[in-house]
Design a protein that fits this description.
This protein has 408 residues and is of the alpha+beta class. 38% of the residues lie in helices and 21% in strands. The protein contains 10 helices and 15 strands. The strands form 4 sheets. A 5-stranded mixed beta sheet has the order 13-12-11-14-15, covered by helices on one side. A hairpin with a 4-residue loop joins strand 2 and strand 3. The radius of gyration is 24 Å and the shape is globular.
Length: 408
């Protein structure tokens, strides 16, 4: 599945100090000293959690300062874009991860050309045992950069080739690409082991709750639940602890729904806001055969399936007993709307992200984890077909509709 590109960053621990009693409204002071930085140069601080980017302007040579507020302790990525470069051009080694905790005073020192290796100091980074912990992760991160940057460069070179030669060259380099990718993730797993060890050593420390949110991947699913059970009540009552508790509840709800959303089951009711601002409910389509398409603008496989869905819709749109509804999972509302326009999706569209993520969200109640997923709902609300992924040469929904509408 091809996703829209973002900063190429392996998961890195970004957490908050337990000794601090900062309030969410307390400002953060960020003092940056980078050789090569000139007055007027711009640095950028990206916040993945908020989908926002702040700009820092150097007020004098080698220096840039920023006072900011964040609603909670969260990760940020500091980077610089030379003229003519975009975020997609950045190497992982050119980005410095930061832990931004309300009330902290942080310093970043290094060279502009090697921003990813800059030294971070200040309240959290100099406290025990967090100082040694961050240093261990920095060492792992530096090793990961060797593989991820090589992979990034190799893929950019392939993309720059004429289309007529890309296929054959990509085939010849497939082994090297796979090797670099495997090595990158092997190093990432080492970082997860480091996080796991920290939680096991300090389960009473609320810091461990945030550490736990940074361990990802299905391979560590059982371990995450085990580590969460070790946490003290104080750690579980932090924002990170409550986030993890909701994550496990959501995962349980998804697994239950995944086993229940089968052919013959009743489709769960929902109400969402359409792209035109009007409310859309499942019950609005009673009396019709309804195709539900779960997709996202970021999902390459979904975008490739859209022309086939459009053809299916055109084929049956004039029938009074047929309808189609696309349910996107898009945090970026503008990207969703642009994809709808670009792909000419002329049937009703809703975005499931208007609801908070959690056990009761629509995609969880429908047991959807693979995108795209399509379902065919009967006129009385029963699930007739569920297909995960899309293959135009094996479209079970199109085949079922043809049986229903075109065969005597």
């Amino acid at each position: 599945m091809k996703h829209s590109r973002r900063l190429l960053l392996l998961p890195v621990l970004l957490a908050f100090s337990l000794s601090a009693v900062a309030q969410a409204a307390d400002p953060i002071e960020l003092h940056i000293q980078l050789k090569g930085l000139q007055k007027g140069d711009r640095l950028y601080l990206a916040f993945p959690d908020d989908n926002r980017t702040d700009t820092l302007v150097a007020t004098r040579k080698h220096r840039a300062d920023l006072t900011l507020t964040v609603p909670k302790t969260q990760e940020g990525f500091l980077y610089y874009l030379p003229k003519g470069k975009t975020r997609e051009d950045l190497l992982q080694s050119e980005v410095r991860s930061l832990c931004l905790q309300p009330g902290d005073r942080l310093t970043v020192k290094g060279h502009l050309s090697a921003l990813g290796k800059a030294k971070v100091g200040g309240d959290l980074y100099e406290g025990h045992p967090y100082r040694d912990y961050f240093r261990a992760l920095d060492t792992i991160f530096a090793e990961a950069c060797v593989y991820s940057d090589s992979l990034h460069t190799l893929l950019k070179e392939v993309q720059a080739l004429p289309e007529s030669t890309q296929g054959s060259l990509a085939d010849s380099l497939r082994g090297e690409i796979r090797r670099l990718n495997d090595q990158s993730w092997a190093v990432a797993e080492r970082s997860y082991r480091t996080m796991e060890n920290f939680v096991r050593h300090y389960p009473q420390d609320p810091f461990s709750a945030y550490v736990l949110t940074c361990i990802r991947g299905s391979k560590f699913e059982k371990t995450r639940q085990e580590l969460f059970d070790l946490l003290s009540p104080e750690a579980k009552d932090t924002p990170a602890g409550r986030e993890m508790e909701e994550y496990f509840a959501t995962n349980r709800a998804w697994k239950q729904a995944d086993s229940l959303i089968t052919e013959g089951a009743q489709a769960p009711e929902f109400t969402l806001t359409g792209i035109d601002g009007q409310k859309v409910s499942l019950s609005d389509f009673r009396g019709k055969y309804l195709v539900l398409d779960f997709w996202g603008s970021w999902c390459g496989a979904c975008r490739e399936a859209n022309p086939y869905l459009r053809a299916l819709y055109e084929r049956y749109k004039d029938r009074p007993d047929f309808a189609m509804l696309s349910l996107a999972l898009d945090r970026d509302d503008a990207a969703w709307r642009e994809a709808v326009r670009t792909d000419s999706l002329c049937w009703p569209q809703v975005n499931m992200c208007e609801e908070p993520a959690g056990p009761t969200s629509v995609n969880v109640r429908y047991g959807v984890s693979l995108y795209p997923t399509q379902m065919l709902i009967s006129p009385d609300g029963q699930i007739l077909v569920r297909q995960n992924g899309f293959r135009p040469d094996h479209d079970a929904i199109a085949a079922r509709l043809e049986e229903l509408f075109e065969q005597p």
